[in-house]
Amino acid sequence: MSGSPISDVRRLEYRNVTMRFAPTRGRDVLTAVRGVSFSVRDGEVVSLIGPSGCGKSTLLSIGSGLTAPSEGEACVDGARLEGPNAEVALMLQKDLLLPWRTVAENVMLGVEIQGMPLPERKQRAQELLSNFNLAEFSNHYPHQLSGGMRQRVALARTLAVDPHVLLLDEPFSAVDAQTRIVLQRELAQTLQRAGKTALLITHDLAEAVTLSDRVLVMSRRPGTIIDEITIDMPQRDNPIARRHDPKVNDYVARLMDRLDIAHASLDQVPAGDAA
Ligand SMILES: Nc1ncnc2c1ncn2[C@@H]1O[C@H](COP(=O)(O)OP(=O)(O)OP(=O)(O)O)[C@@H](O)[C@H]1O
Ligand SMILES: [Mg+2]
């Protein structure tokens, strides 16, 4: 196994979660996810994959406490989430940096809210920015950065608050292949070093396999969990080493098969929930 300190404690749990969105012009109620139950154990990294629109971001938002599910519940450390929780940090699919703040000020936002003294939070921001090769841009503004750089700032901002649970929505989708490799390693090492619990959304199957202990596959909308694959490989903190392991290709092929099934599940979508 990975050697990572995964305990039996359930850090983040979804219990029979259903999410319906109210009708909008000319449309019926939209059921985004239906009857979703799973948990992420303390120190575990789980990836969530599935077709576009199947409700992955919706589940992350529910796990952060920002969105209340229509039915069921999300729990952190056994307690039902009733709103945002200090132990959980969410990195949104869109980076949403504050345009009037510099890069360093954006990274410091969460720790500023937490009340960390200025010298300490400046140091925290500088460390993270240098880990993400952004040190020389700390005084730039978001509009002066590329999409990939903005995403790196958003990831640094999420890690800055040092949460127990990280919810990451396609954290590397806008970065180039080379930077992606660097960031994947940085993230994997950070998660391992600090024993973080993470739920990660990605469309990149090899990324899911190399970064995770487990991968959950969702059906088309209304999204349900249709499969779960445990990644039985060492070195979860070293995605580059994992990528050289021929087992990665086997796992990716299995996930592709599952996604094929997920796409086929379109036929089973009730009429009111289609489109
Ligand atoms: N606030 C909202 N109001 C109405 N419908 C919504 C809302 N948020 C999401 N939806 C709908 O719920 C469904 C699931 O959306 P979600 O963003 O969770 O999908 P996703 O799996 O993250 O997709 P992608 O891979 O494209 O990011 C979509 O049909 C979307 O249009
Ligand atoms: Mg999404």
Please trace the helix and strand order, writing H or E for each element. EEEHEEEHHHHEHEHEEHH
> Ranges with pLDDT <50 over ≥5 residues?
269-275
Which structural category do the helix and sheet elements fall into? alpha/beta
Helix content range of the residues, please? 25-40%
Radius of gyration: 19 Å
Average pLDDT taken over every residue: 90
So what's the CATH class of the largest domain?
A: Alpha Beta
The count of β-strands is: 10
Shape: globular
Structurally, how many domains make up the residues? 2
CATH level 4 superfamily of the largest domain: P-loop containing nucleotide triphosphate hydrolases
Explain this structure to me?
- This protein has 2 domains: 10-87 and 164-273, Rossmann fold (3-Layer(aba) Sandwich), CATH 3.40.50.300; 96-162, no CATH class.
- It is of the alpha/beta class and 275 residues long.
- The protein is 35% helix and 23% strand.
- Bound molecules: adenosine-5'-triphosphate and magnesium ion.
